[in-house]
Specification:
about 55% helix
Length: about 120
């Protein structure tokens, strides 16, 4: 998502690039924090904010999965102010679910090794 939005800045097509992300009834942003390119620019926080803010003002659902703690999002996105606004909108009308425990994939791996 951020790669697409960032590229649209060079072609002056940001509004067009935002459309599929803000108009979808359900947007799933999976594994925020895995891709390092997302962490390279403060502009990413601004682009992420544009999507979340627009969706927040519409009846649209957004699911975000991440291993980043709330306190670390500002450092990850590079702009503490924009990050605070993003998180405020994500949790303002939503639910934060925190899962603790062993990785499902690690458990699957152990089970496969046990069978061998």
């Amino acid at each position: 998502m951020l790669d697409t939005l960032y590229a649209s800045l060079a072609t002056h097509t940001l509004q067009q690039a935002l459309r599929p992300f803000v108009r979808a009834d359900l947007l799933i942003i999976d594994e925020v924090g895995i891709e390092r390119p997302e962490r390279d620019s403060e502009r990413d926080a601004s682009l992420f904010y544009k999507v979340v803010d627009t969706r927040h003002n519409r009846p649209a659902s957004t699911i975000v999965t991440t291993n980043i703690s709330w306190d670390d999002w500002g450092g990850y996105l590079g702009d503490a102010l924009a990050t605070g606004a993003i998180l405020d909108r994500l949790v303002g009308r939503g639910y934060a679910l925190r899962f603790e425990g062993r990785s499902y994939r690690a458990a699957q791996h152990e089970e496969l090794n046990r069978r061998r």
